[in-house]
Design goal:
Elements: E1 4-5, E2 11-12, H1 17-31, H2 37-47, H3 52-63, H4 68-72, H5 75-82, H6 88-101, H7 105-118, H8 123-135, H9 139-149, H10 160-173, H11 177-190, H12 195-207, H13 211-220, H14 222-226, H15 232-245, H16 249-260, H17 268-283, H18 289-299, H19 309-321, H20 325-338, H21 344-364, H22 368-375, H23 389-407, H24 416-432
Antiparallel strand pairs: 1-2
């Protein structure tokens, strides 16, 4: 086969014209967070079994997950890639894939950064690096990575809307809310059904305290971000947060029942959203007992995952919410062992995972002094959980609820030292979780 270029001018190996068209459809779907990318890739690889970038994108679709089973399923694809003839750019992709399979996300991000220096229009490298910045809590990467390559992109290039949407999310996470909204709206002007850009709008409304406007936006544009997309459950989670912010507990619970846990998905991302929403409902005084039991059962198979501290935290929320003392104990024991391992998960477990989970467990059993002590020490490191500011807020909300219970005279322990510790904890959280404005902010 002769050498070919993709639709952004990057050299590709092993493609036919028909396979390239199927690959571009897969890439377009993944960039907009729409379903169907896997089917398009299967078509591309059937047409051209040695099409390197089709295999690369198939691997990344599995690797950009918080589910260790999905990540492991990329190994056979990596083995296949090693046997294919590839160019220098494609070999760097293979190196990034292998680093991720080795659980070394920092090395993977380094390889992806090399790729983007070599070819700033490599849409796959940019999308995956952005996903890994999010997963590792790298706010600087989110804020700066897209800004570095944006001058190489023009509005006529396929996927430019996705670049703007990624830029918008990085700006939002760095506290540049007005610029983030401008960039998201620019992306939507190019592609009104870009679910990623609608997701950024939800974050902007959340972080700027515009709950009624956020709810209206998501309701009005629901077909664009929920029909045939991979982010529908998370979008409904955002909508429920806006309902909670307006004091409508019943509406938030109804959204949980109808959208977040119907159907009873076993996907880790959906379980995370369910735990995060149900815990907020609990903190707001809602009745959630029966729902917790179902959710705790869904989380139980993941106790031994030893893969992601963000997952561990949300599993602990479910076990504590359900009053499942046995699984609270089991998860804590697993994490106490995992923190000794010299792995990415071992490091994050030592730094934040185990203290956070123990803090949640202490809150659940009413030991507010212990919860305040454990959760109050987290802010300087909490970004290492990954996720967004909106998602990590669950820890801040729990700490504030523990502080509020502690302040009630009937439950206030004696000792001025603890009173002072409570105040310091609240102040640390406020300082450390306020997004810092990025010097790399660029508007489209």
């Amino acid at each position: 086969m002769t050498a070919r270029l993709d639709h952004r001018g990057c050299a590709i190996s092993g493609a036919t014209p028909a396979a390239l068209q199927a690959y571009e459809r897969a890439l377009a779907a993944s960039q907009s967070w729409h379903a169907g990318a896997e089917e398009h890739l299967a078509e591309a690889m059937t047409e051209a079994p040695d099409f390197v970038m089709a295999h690369v994108l198939a691997a990344y679709l599995r690797l950009c997950s918080r589910d260790p089973g999905s990540v492991r399923s990329a190994r056979p694809i990596a083995q296949r890639l090693r046997a294919l003839r590839s160019n220098a750019r494609e070999r760097l992709h293979l190196a990034a894939i292998e680093a991720t399979l080795d659980d070394d996300y920092e090395r993977a991000k380094t390889r992806l950064a090399e790729l983007l220096r070599l070819e700033p229009r490599d849409a796959v490298a940019l999308q995956v690096a952005h996903a890994f910045d999010y997963a590792t809590g790298d706010a600087a990467g989110l804020g700066e990575r897209v800004a570095r390559v944006l001058p190489a992109w023009t509005p006529d290039l396929p996927g430019y809307h996705a670049v703007l949407a990624m830029q918008a999310f990085g700006l939002e996470e760095c506290g540049e809310y007005e610029a983030a909204e401008d960039s998201a709206r620019a992306a939507l002007a190019l592609h009104p059904r870009d679910a990623r850009a609608h997701h950024v709008m939800a974050h902007v409304f959340e972080m700027t305290g515009r709950a009624p406007e956020g709810e209206r936006w998501l309701a009005t544009h629901a077909p664009d971000w929920s029909d045939g997309t991979i982010v529908a459950t998370h979008g409904w989670w955002h909508l429920a947060l806006f309902q909670l912010a307006q004091g409508r507990l019943g509406s938030a619970i109804a959204t949980y029942d109808a959208r977040v846990r119907d159907p009873r998905s076993a996907a880790v991302a959906d379980l995370i959203d369910a735990s995060a929403l149900l815990w907020r409902v609990r903190l707001a005084g809602g009745t959630t007992e029966a729902r917790w039991t179902e959710l705790a059962r869904a989380w139980a198979p993941h106790i031994e995952d030893r893969f992601c501290s963000f997952n561990d935290l949300h599993a602990m929320l479910a076990f504590v919410g359900a009053g499942d003392v046995e699984n609270v104990r089991r998860l804590e024991q697993v994490l106490a062992t995992a923190r000794m391992q010299r792995t990415r998960h071992g490091h994050t477990t030592r730094e934040i995972g185990l203290p956070a989970c123990r803090g949640i467990a202490a809150f659940g059993r009413g030991d507010d002094a212990c919860a305040i002590k454990l959760l109050g020490r987290l802010p300087e490191r909490v970004h290492r959980f990954g996720g967004s500011h909106a998602q990590r807020d669950v820890l801040h909300l729990t700490l504030m609820a523990a502080v509020e219970r502690f302040r009630r005279p009937a439950r206030r322990p004696r000792g001025e030292a603890l009173v002072a510790a409570v105040r310091r904890a609240a102040q640390r959280w406020q300082r450390a979780t306020t997004p810092r404005r990025s010097a790399a902010a660029v508007t489209p």
